[in-house]
Amino acid sequence: MSDAATLNFQGKSIELPTFVGSENEVAVDIQELRNKTGMITFDDGYGNTGSCLSSITYIDGDAGILRYRGYPIEQLAEESTFVETAYLIVFGELPSAAELQRFRGQLTAHQFLHENLRHHYDGFPPNAHPMAILSAMINAASCFQPALMKLDDDESFTSQAARLMSQVRTIAAASYKKSIGEPMMYPRSDLRYTANFLHLLFSKPYAEYDPDPDVVRALDQIFILHADHEQNCSTSTVRMVGSSQANLWASVSAGVCALWGPLHGGANQAVIEMLTEIHKSGVKPEEFIARVKAKDSKARLMGFGHRVYKNFDPRAKILKAACDKVLNKLGVHDPLLDIAKKLEETALRDDYFVERKLYPNVDFYSGIIMRAIGIPLNMFTVLFAIGRIPGWIANWREVHLNPKARIYRPRQIYTGPTKRDYLPIGKRAT
Ligand code: SDX
Question: Counting C-beta atoms within 10 Å of the first and last residue's C-beta, which end of the chain has fewer, N or C?
Answer without folding.
Answer: C
